[in-house]
Amino acid sequence: MDIGSTIRAIRKRKNITIAQICEETGLSQGFMSQVETNKTSPSIATLESIANALKVPLAYLLLDKKEKMQIVRKDDRRVTTSGPDKLNVSHLSSTKNVHMMIVELPPGASTGENHAHEGEEVHVVIQGTIYIEQGEDAAELSAGDSFSWNACTPHTVKNIGEDTAIVMIAVYTESDPSKAFM
């Protein structure tokens, strides 16, 4: 964990000097320098004092880099294909347990035969008309409609419209959510 670099980056971005942090926290400049260079590990109480001086939540200082805000620009999205119809999948963003993507289904394309996998999914139809089926439940959905299901029950999605259907999906799993799909 690189707490010191995080503290230094926040302090510099906010134009706060080490002396100002020390004045507010009562810590010595030598100690603060060692904290910022990761040569010492401050206690939680000390970190809370530093967080208060920086006006950031203590939890923010404790987050790993991969747990902090991640931005994926439209032009930088990872695009893959999935299923027998080679559906375009644009990966939007992920956290430890949630993965968001946009799937394009050309007319007549589907996710294939009923399949199941770990996770829970929430879908929003952005464009087009799709048919969904899970167990004994089935429905036709259009742009603006949404649905959710537990993906451990076999399911399928098919574009029944004349135009490309676009569906935004959020997948939650206890393991790697990027391995789950529709």
Main traits of this protein?
alpha+beta, 6-stranded antiparallel β-sheet, 3-stranded antiparallel β-sheet
Helices and strands, with pairings:
Layout: H1 3-13, H2 18-25, H3 29-36, H4 44-54, H5 58-62, E1 78-82, E2 87-94, E3 98-105, E4 120-127, E5 129-134, E6 137-142, E7 146-150, E8 155-159, E9 165-172
Antiparallel strand pairs: 1-2, 2-3, 3-9, 4-7, 4-9, 5-6, 5-8
How would you describe the overall organization of this protein?
- The protein is an alpha+beta fold.
- The chain is built from five helices and nine strands.
- Strands 1-2-3-9-4-7 form a six-stranded antiparallel sheet, with no helix packed on it. The protein has a three-stranded antiparallel sheet with strand order 6-5-8, with no helix packed on it.
- The longest helix has 11 residues, at 3-13.
- The radius of gyration is 23 Å and the shape is elongated.
- The model has no long low-confidence stretch (mean pLDDT 91).
